[in-house]
Amino acid sequence: MTPVIALVGRPNVGKSTLFNQMTRTRDALVADFPGLTRDRKYGEGNYEGQRFIAIDTGGLTGDEKGLDAEMARQSMQAVDEADIVLFLVDGKSGLNGGDEVIASHLRKTGKRAHLVVNKTDGQDPDIAASDFHGLGFESTFLIAASHNRGIRSMLEILLPALEEGAEQDRADRYPGIRIGIVGRPNVGKSTLVNRMLGEDRVIVFDMPGTTRDSIYVPYERHDKQYTLIDTAGVRRRKNVSETVEKFSIIKTLKAIEDAHVVILVIDARQGLVDQDLHLIGFVLDAGRSLVIAVNKWDGMDPDDRAKVKEQVARRLDFLDYADKHYISALHGSGVGVMYDSVEACYESAMAKWPTNRLTAILQDATAQHQPPLVQGRRIKLRYAHQGGSNPPVIVVHGNQVDSLPGAYKRYLENTFRKVLKVTGSPIRFEFKSGENPYATKVDRLTPRQKVKKDNDRKQGPAPKKKRQKSLKR
């Protein structure tokens, strides 16, 4: 899951500065006068390997009119879109009437909101936060955004807490296998969703970009529960101009991470293009299972079909573990059999394997093909255990694992995939070196041993005895 974090507050409290620090960019305009941010702005951040989306918003005063009213509407939309809200206040100027209005509105939304007291540099932290205790927020963070102080510790607390209940929340709201339908605009994603549902649940129109937001549709099929996620088409970055379409891209990327299995729809008439490969890259980075659906297969002559199949086989040779289906979403041909691939992908992604089985596979693999020598010493891989699911994570323990070549890691991945019969899902490996348990151990001497050691030190080394040569008679 990629959490979405909205930054709200009065003008000039440092929202854009915090946004830039969180996303490590200068995308948000920053200046020392209020009202600079007119529209909400999106950026991607990364803390300790966990991605998140930050939304910078215009300042709120509580009494907006005209253009300010539109800014307020944009800010409130950001609150609705967010998983978590950071309410920024100015620690130097203290509590303001506008702060109380914003706090009251946030309580009504029911969103998880946290108070962030900014501009605390050069102040006593307790004094800086004392004015805002009356706002009634359970958690308060003290930061100095302009100096990048306190931000990492804030994210360290917020992101894991947000992730803990996220999967259970998604499971409750969207039961069963979550299937994300992604692809470029006008490749037939919504048509495929309607065909899989057996009814017109999403808008289908012969114009690129009809779907502006991700649509989650829970349903049942053969007494099994599923949730289809129809997403907006992702265009090349240079062709993205409208703000709403930029946000649609973020929604698409978020939907990929929400899914268990992703179906990438490719237009057979246009063939495989670079943007399809970019989407595949994001699916793999997110660790999601993948099914390829080559759509609009009906009506193509045999020569064109052969060319498309050759292109897919050649350019997607690195995805030999992913099932590929040639379908017509409009007429339904080939759509039903995709459920078999989806089921197999889900079972592989969520599989649980005992440690003794994984260790046995590792030992068989190393016996058949030993790891290489490093500086005259053989790399040893001792045992393996599972470290997570969706995607499966296998943790391998040994020594000198940092020197393990990429080719040998791929050999292990292919071996585990074949033996465990993993279909459609990537497998991630983590290699950990075993540490010497006695490296930091300090010998503790008894009082008697200490006295003997001190005496030996004072007397110096004992003289060596001369050995007498034995004479043979």
From TrEMBL:
All residue ranges annotated as the EngA-type G domain in the record: 3-166, 177-350
SUPFAM superfamilies membership: P-loop containing nucleoside triphosphate hydrolases
SMART domains per record: AAA
UniProt keyword Cell division, yes or no: no
Compositional bias per record (Basic and acidic residues), positions renumbered to this chain: 441-459
Pfam families for the chain: KH_dom-like, MMR_HSR1
Positions contributing to GTP 1 binding: 9-16, 56-60, 118-121
Origin superkingdom: Bacteria
Region (Disordered): 438-473
Keyword tags: GTP-binding, Nucleotide-binding, Repeat, Ribosome biogenesis
One GO-annotated biological process of the protein: ribosome biogenesis
Record-listed GTP 2 binding positions: 183-190, 230-234, 295-298
Record-linked InterPro entries: AAA+_ATPase, G_ENGA, GTP-bd, GTPase_Der, KH_dom-like, KH_dom-like_a/b, P-loop_NTPase, Small_GTP-bd
Any GO MF annotation of the entry: ribosome binding
Biased composition (Basic residues): 463-473
Family, similarity comment: Belongs to the TRAFAC class TrmE-Era-EngA-EngB-Septin-like GTPase superfamily. EngA (Der) GTPase family.
Subunit composition and interactions: Associates with the 50S ribosomal subunit.
Function noted in UniProt: GTPase that plays an essential role in the late steps of ribosome biogenesis.
Name this polypeptide is given: GTPase Der
UniProt source species: Marinobacter confluentis
